[in-house]
Amino acid sequence: MGVVNKRFKERWFVLSGNKLFYYKSKDANAAIHFIPLDEAFIRVSSEYYPASPCFEIVTGSRIFQLVAPNFPTMNDWIQSAQKHSNIYNDNRVIALVEQDIIQQEREMARVRMLSEEALPRRDRMPSDATDEEVNCDSAIDSDEPWTMIEYSNNDGEL
Questions:
Q1: Cα angle vertex 108, ends 107, 109, to 5°?
Q2: How far is CA 147 from the centre of its chain?
Q3: Domain boundaries along the sequence of the chain
Q4: The domain 12-84: what is its CATH number?
Q5: Contact 21/31 with Cβ under 8 angstroms?
Q6: 129 Cβ contact partners less than 8 Å away, ≥ 6 residues apart
């Protein structure tokens, strides 16, 4: 990798599409270079935070450290850059899908709980009910096939 330059230099940045162009000054006609944001990861700099509003743009070939004038501006710059990052957008889509799945699972659990509350339970049965009248767990939990039993009245009719 190249030389590590730990001195910050003042630059003028212009965001255009998925590229963050940087210039020597506001009046400069030509950009020094650009930072490709489409495959970049943008994060707060753990090296300087919380002492300085510094953040990093990590690309496949380089880590750019930028310092904003204050923390609210840093957050604005990070959010603007993240909108152009495929990595951030892909992760955001995944996070939204995960949130949706969690919400659906919670709703299904709530419905399941409500439906279980509606089922008769032994503690809700009259006290004179016998075990045979109440206990149907053995038939439900059994691996044996169910058999239909026909009942008839005393005359032999169904």
A1: 90
A2: 48
A3: 12-84, 93-120
A4: 2.30.29.30
A5: yes
A6: none
